[in-house]
Amino acid sequence: MQNISTVKKRIMLFLISMSIFLSVLDLFIVNVAIPKIRVAMHASVADIQLIIVYYVIGYGAFLITSGKVGLKYGHKKIFILSMFSFGVFSLLCGLAWDIHSLNIFRLFQGISGAFMIPQGVTLLSSIFVIEEERRRAYSIYGAIAGISSVLGQILGGILPDLDFAFGGWRLIFLINVPIAFIVGILSWGVLVEIDRKRDLKIQPLSQLVMVCLLVLLMYSLVTGADYGWTTTLLLVLVNAIICIVLFLVIQFKNYKKSINVLIDFKPFTYRTFAVALIALVFYSLVQDSYFFIYANHFQLKLDYTATQTGLLFAFQGVGYVIASFLSLKFLSKYKERFMLFGLLLMIGGLVGHYWLLSREYILFYEVALLLFEYGMGCGVVLPSMFTYALSSLPTDITSIGSSLYLTLQQLSIALGVSIVGQSYFGSIDGHFNSTVIMIVLLIMTGFVFLISYKRRLSN
Fold this sequence. Notes:
CATH superfamily of the largest domain: MFS general substrate transporter like domains
CATH architecture of the largest domain: Up-down Bundle
């Protein structure tokens, strides 16, 4: 790997970065387009929540296993296969005939994304072996993720408004297809395979049970809140609980036999990591719920077009990108206090949202400024929390810790969309209710960091 030319390394970095670009793009592009999809597909509130929830479940549930699969069968091979798979399921999402088929394809699209990301990160670390080069490569990789989040929100607004032959909203999925296939083909000739561990044991049963329990649990929670708890949904929930028990039994048996368990709890023995993950749960319950709520509110209540909504969210994205670069400088000095500052910006932004959007006359630039402020808060908290969580872990378990962190983040996002989404659509005062819930969750996040800060001072 050390003899690769600088030009080829840059090409490799570009191809690998397309994995995070597509994964992040497809999370944010859908948020803005959901009201259009709901009308076109005659979907219920539960159905449109599942568009996000299933993608996030597929993505989060396979993050831990996907790294091991790449190690066993080859990171390059799995990267290319998952890139093609992402393209195929994006095509199927774009051609979906009803909301149920769309949600199923979204689940597999998320799974494909979960297999792309860990392979790309591992390949980057093997290509850029010099520490300074590797740090620069990761910075570019992260910047592309930030750019993708902004671009996703803009395209999620513009594309659904296009007068396309069979629905402009379909373009938000179809746009992935040529990118995924071109990147997959080029990667086959450009990327280099790294050493494999052919004797590595994978736990397919644990993974299958985990996916089943998450799908059944989230489906029952989302649809139960919307349609009511019918006998069928109660049976689905019971099956989810059975899957949880079965998963824990399998994990315990594997642990007793000294077999690699699917979820390794070793990182939780480090206090800083454990604190960060508690805060992460509260924060992630808000993270994507915010976009889900306001994408609907802007278009359904304020009669903004999808394009206007996308442009508004772009201001949030710009604020996020600017603050995320600043976070690298200030986190090491201020630690928990810096994240508390970011949370205050977010809380202030939410209070401002409710006050401004409750007025009779609303100016576009006023909304844009509030979204920019909220985005700055997100840009302070989210990257800082990830760095804070992993900073205390030894090198040999950092990869385990990062997988646990990202998995818990995605699953909390799915749960948050369900809880906050139902609070918004479930009553006349939905905007007030959802705002209060998000503010309380952010206060809880800050409370965790405040306790951590006080304990660190006392020690």
